[in-house]
């Protein structure tokens, strides 16, 4: 960690951290209980958690004073701040985010933004497998996320969602269904009663439903060291809340059909190592051709290239193409349903256009199922024209393919 921290410092010029041991102050204001924890190199220096019925924001600064006095440190003595950026109550989250932004500005220190669901999942010990983390989303809904657990490492499988418990269990089935037979899954929640019934009436009925602590701050602090190791600390300006659902105030003003939080997408080259993550996305996009994990292992060979859209380490979408002479075929394109209509496919295809232009491609073409209205609308918006039909081209179910094409010109890469 000391080595990682030093290498991080050289990257993060505006912040001057000179100590070898890293101290993190972690806060959770997203839940009704809330809490604070101070850590030094993953070791807990002190923490405050009072399961009071008062709104946490009204106790927060009092408890901060108590904690800093007890451990003899002031807020400026920490090297980074960790905060639950969501999901949770709008007002509660804002209190924590505003406090951390102010500290980061004043003391010129970075911030680790951590999901409360990640802190729930981190508490599950035991063999490798999957963890479905659940928190109370109110109004009969749950906030949920799925992780693949390997030792202490938790890898996101898809994004956070808010839905009713039965829908969430169905979503878990879709995300890990293909492999669940061989793997164990634990449903973890500070309030396991929220999900127990839905699990009991699902294919996961024999799975463990584990009660974990609602005292998340120490776990948030621990995860923040991983965020630092991954070089994903942010500054005050970049920190954003992830409400998963819009605040009530916003929802009354806007339609409620698109309750997604802002996602931060990075586009990067695909490699054959992404094959497994892509195969987990496939069941969520049944309209698209299925290649399976083995098919995607061909990326990087046989002229197949691709790009991934990644949101905080999670593969959210991808495109794969093949260039032959002066033509490029779009072989497949998918975006996680929970992240659609955010121009992710547009950004993926822009990466493909840029590649095509460099390769001297003059024409791009693809096939799409006739019934795939979303993809047809997307390609039409991209300037493709439908100019052919292949009878019974697809199986399961049998269906005609429409062939689409467009000429490539320099406007495409802008
Ligand atoms: C098709 C698909 C990749 C589009 O992904 P996306 O990230 O939502 O697309 P974008 O946000 O970049 O959409 C850009 C534009 O395309 C059009 N478009 C995309 N999806 C649309 C839809 N469902 N209905 C109507 N128009 C749509 C719109 O003009 C949109 O712009 P707007 O949101 O400002 O109106 C996505 O729906 C998907 O993964 N579908 C399942 C897999 C699939 O069918 N793949 C195609 C295999 S050939």
Quick structural gist:
The chain contains 12 helices and 18 strands. With 414 residues, it is an alpha/beta fold. Residues 285, 287-288, 332-335, 340-346, 366, 368, 372, 374-375, 377-378, 381 line the site of coenzyme A.
The largest β sheet comes out as: 7 strands, mixed
Element string (H = helix, E = strand): HEEEHEHEHEEEEHEHEHHEHHEEEHEHEE
Strand order of the largest sheet: 12-13-14-15-16-18-17
- Terminal CA distance reads 41 Å
- Helix percentage: 25-40%
Low-confidence stretches: 1-19, 246-262
Q: What does the average pLDDT come to?
A: 84
C-alpha Rg (nearest Å): 23 Å
Number of helical segments with 4 or more residues: 12
Query: What structural class do you assign from the helix and strand content?
Result: alpha/beta
Assess the beta-strand content as a share of residues. Answer: 25-35%
- Report the principal-axis shape: elongated
Ligand types = coenzyme A
Count all strands and give the number: 18
